[in-house]
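Email to the structure team, subject: Antitoxin model.

Hi all, the expression group asked for a predicted structure before they design truncation constructs. Nothing fancy, just the tokens so they can compare against earlier work. One-line instruction: predict Antitoxin, return tokens.
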Amino acid sequence: MPLKTWTATDAQTRFAEMTADAQAIPQIVALPDGKKVVVVSQDYFDKAEHAIKLPLMTGGFAGPGESDFDRAMQDVRAEAGSKGPGSDAEDS
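Reply from the structure team: attached below.
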């Protein structure tokens, strides 16, 4: 089943319908600037979270060579590593 795409105006006007539909399948919202965002249910996010985080946290996401994104992710990985896996440490 193809994902439904909403304009930002329709998504805002029909928010309850859009979020109800997102309980079944992800919904795409096309923003006025041409960018798109995806709205998913909490259940979908919880199941996909590991697959989303893993590429971001392991580096080289943007491909060969270092990009601004890769440099930013190095900071995130360093911060995550300083707390250790499963750490409950809070940011100060």
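The first strand starts at residue 4 and ends at 7. Confidence is low (pLDDT under 50) at residues 86-92. Ping us if the truncation boundaries need rechecking.
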